Amino acid sequence: MIRAPFTFLAALALTLGLSACGFHLRNTLSLPPDTPAVRVQSTSPYSELVKILNRGLTASGATLADEDAKTGFATLQVLSERWGDLPIAIDAEGRAQEYSLRYAVIFSLLRADGSVLVPQQVIELSRDYVSPPQDATGTATEREILANELRREMAASIMRRIDSVVRARLEHGQSLDNPSPGEATPPALPVQPPAR
After folding, report:
1. FRET partner for 173 with CA separation of 20 to 30 A, picked from 3, 39, 133, 140?
2. Could you give the strand order of the β-sheet that contains 37-42, starting from the edge strand earlier in sequence?
3. C-alpha span between 72 and 85 (Å, rounded)
4. Which one of 10-14, 160-164, 169-173, 186-190 scores highest in mean pLDDT?
5. CA 36, CA 53: separation in Å to the nearest integer?
6. What angle do CA 74, 77, 80 make, to 5 degrees?
7. Using CA atoms, how far apart are residues 34 and 177, in angstroms rounded to an integer?
């Protein structure tokens, strides 16, 4: 009976210690209170990745732009989502037995005026899974579970990239609303359709 309260107190002390040293839980995003609303833009506006990103932004304290808003919001552009299955092992009959599920996303973050806050970049993730030729049903289920995990991890990776840029700018006293002197302000890139 003495171990349970001790364990609770140890966990509480660890949590307080981590928060005091600046540690932040995964998927958190540091945004100042005056940050404008954000809209996630994609060729697939109802995709699972967009839903996860919207939830993550909301949980981080960001305001999502109204659907009918035309201006006055930052834009997280998901320019491309690509999936691929790469065979990495075959059986004695030359049939694929194991695959690497690959997921790549190109994204950028634009300020409300259209200038670039987080430059266009690619994140690629992968997971391996076994796919015996005689068990297609089980393989499809396993692949879908892995795909869901990859989407969540991708959203977390995008949030971390945004967070690192935002923190670096704030630490150097730079505004998030306006580009630095000499900073390029290229136009928004067209959204590419996802690969099938």
Report:
1. 39
2. 37-42, 73-90, 96-110, 116-130
3. 40
4. 160-164
5. 16
6. 180
7. 9
Query: What is the band of 86 on the pLDDT scale with cuts at 50, 70, 90?
Result: confident
DSSP string covering the chain, please? --HHHHHHHHHHHHHHHHHHTT---TT-----TTPPEEEEEESSTTSHHHHHHHHHHHHTTPPBPPTT--SSEEEEEEEEEEEEEEEEEE-TTS-EEEEEEEEEEEEEEE-TTS-EEEEEEEEEEEEEEE--TT-HHHHHHHHHHHHHHHHHHHHHHHHHHHHHHHHHHHHTT--SSSPPTT---PPPPPPPPPP-
Confirm if 29 and 166 have CB atoms less than 8 A apart: yes
Give exposure, 139-171, as e/b (b: 16+ Cβ within 10 Å): beebbeebeeebbebbbbbbbebbbebbeeeee
Strand partners, 105: 81, 123
pTM of the model: 0.71
**Inter-residue contact 41 to 57 (CB < 8 Å):** no
Among the listed residues 104, 34, 46, the one whose alpha carbon sits nearest the alpha carbon of residue 74: 34
Measured distance between the N- and C-terminal CA atoms of the chain, rounded to whole angstroms:
57
Question: 136-171 vs 48-59: helix axis angle to the nearest 10?
Answer: 40
Q: Scanning the structure block, which residue is given the tokens 């892995």? A: 146
